[in-house]
Design brief:
This protein is mainly β. Helix content is about 10%, strand content about 40%. The chain has a single domain, classed as Jelly Rolls, CATH 2.60.120. Strands 1, 3, 7, 8 and 10 form a five-stranded antiparallel sheet that branches.
């Protein structure tokens, strides 16, 4: 560490505009990728914890091995409550490996507070394997 940095006189870190721009860059939309390799089960999901409040804006998923004999569905819940208020869970059709379109979420049920967790939970498997879920998350908006 340089002497100027230790004394708070660094040209970079001593610049108030640097702090403001860094803070602004920390907020805004981020893409979060959740992956789960191999065989999928509908029994357990995976909790995701965010460093601060956020809002899920969109949801998209694909699988490595396509479902057969029926569709693959997946839910995303915040402390046990689905973020899909219409009850229509995202799905991948039998024989396909990805959703046909991105699901826009963005409702009040998609707010994640500091103390809450988001769980990705496969609900109907039908032989699908290897799940990837892409979440667009706005780190600037939350209810906290």
């Amino acid at each position: 560490m340089t002497r100027a940095l230790r004394r708070g006189r660094s040209k970079l870190f001593g610049n108030p505009e640097f702090h403001t721009s860094s803070h602004e860059e920390a907020h805004g939309t981020r893409t979060v990728l959740y992956t789960r390799n191999g065989t999928l089960t509908a029994v357990s999901g995976q909790d995701l914890t965010f460093p601060r409040g956020a809002q899920v804006i969109s949801f998209w998923m694909n699988v490595d091995g396509p479902p057969s004999g029926g569709e693959f569905t997946c839910d995303a819940t915040i402390d046990g409550t689905t973020i899909f208020s219409d009850g229509d869970l995202p799905s991948i059709a039998s024989g396909d490996k990805e959703m046909t379109e991105v699901r826009i979420v963005g409702g009040m049920e998609a707010f994640i507070s500091d103390s809450e967790t988001l769980e990705i939970l496969p609900t109907t498997i039908n032989g699908a394997s290897g799940l990837q879920v892409w979440l667009e998350v706005d780190m600037g908006d939350s209810d906290d």
